[in-house]
Amino acid sequence: MPQYIAAIDQGTTSTRCVIFDSKGRVVAGDQLEHTQRFPRPGWVEHDALEILANTRRVVAGALAKADLTGASLAAVGITNQRETTVIWDGKTGVPIHPAIVWQDTRTQAICDELAASEGAARYQGRVGLPLATYFSGPKIRWILDHVDGARRRAERGELKFGTMDTWLLWNLTGGADGGVHATDVTNASRTLLMDLRTQRWDPDIAAEIGVPAALLPEIRSSSEIYGSGAEAPLAGVPIAGMLGDQQAAAFGQVCFSPGTAKNTYGTGNFLLLHTGGEPVSSRHGLLTTVAYRIGDRPAAFALEGSVAVAGSLIQWLRDNLGLISSAAEVEALAATVEDNGGCYVVPAFSGLYAPHWRPDARGVIVGLTRYVTKAHLARAALEAVAFQTCEVVDAMRADSGVELAELRVDGGMVVNDLLMRIQADLLGVPVVRPQVTETTALGAAYTAGLAVGFWAGEDELRRNWAEGRRFSPTMDAATRERLCARWRKAVTRTFDWA
Predict the structure, then answer these.
(1) What is the three-class DSSP state of 46?
(2) Which of 4, 11, 69, 180 is the most exposed place for a label (fewest CB within 10 A)?
């Protein structure tokens, strides 16, 4: 009797496999980083074949560390960096171009062209998203426009498009030999191509953007058996859950009721608020997205605030400036000072995402004096992550009328206690870190387990969730507002640069 569920977590900087038991506890895991390619300013690429090879290695590695075989697994779930776009040959399985990553801004001219007559909100009423370089549709168009013969091949049905969930599913279920070409509603809702209400591809939008219908995968729910593994060690194991990474984190945080919210601190910051069974349009710079759909049940929706740069700002301090030698050092360095010394860092490296949506913005450091040290810069970087979250929470409050009672958090940065204290102070509400912080992988495991009956339902999953540590605010309201006002002023200095 299989006793475990595996989750493949294909992220922006690495790929992991995590194995969970029936209580949602981590049994074992393995992780490999992949190459980040920056061929031009604003361009970010991945090698999809490298990611596939790493996926196979971490699955085998996690099983080996737990002394298990594929026969021990009831199912596998997949969660992935969203919007990252790969197009491949359906007969050979070879990508025709490097994967274009969600952070990449090369499609700005395409977005400007599409927005020329009706503005960036041209499709937002149907798809929940503004025209922006973030999303997959314009990336597909760019590849077809720049690879010789690609558009003709796509129209003939010779090529396949997918975000990373689709790419992995197709390969793990057989690839050119019968691989399943499908995506789930959460990933499809990030392409600019799916109608939120019908949860089907919108043929008119696809045609206007320049995406042939023959290229697109089938849209399915987030929790069902899509197919079975075609090769060891997953041969015969059902692949039964797929969610975009931020929706997976919300599912792992058991955000199953309207009004529940989570924030993930990873490469970027992503805050999701469950809004119920109908999509809620945003008037304050947020995205309307599918939160999940379980089997044949109706979909749940969310408002999302997507911030491009969070953990990658700490990587920048390490790799580009050399202020620290490892990401873990930033907390100790920032803790040596009591405040930011008047210095603010706004990391608009590829423009600003929610709630501003300013592709013309570029990063700034403001308020520099001779008093400022590298410790102040480190603290200002942590504060930048927290300030950006506050902007998103303010927008969510304005759109939904919901006042947060607490914020559940996850992602690689939540081990930083100083950041969590700063976040609680600037929000003015408790920040709650769960005992199991692998919530992205856990959400994918949960959807897979529900599909095969490993877990009985959402109530059982709620019982698995446990609070790890609560960070309560200590800052007075006047100080909070003064700091936030200075941050808002700093943000304006990034505008109209590019």
Answers:
(1) strand
(2) 69
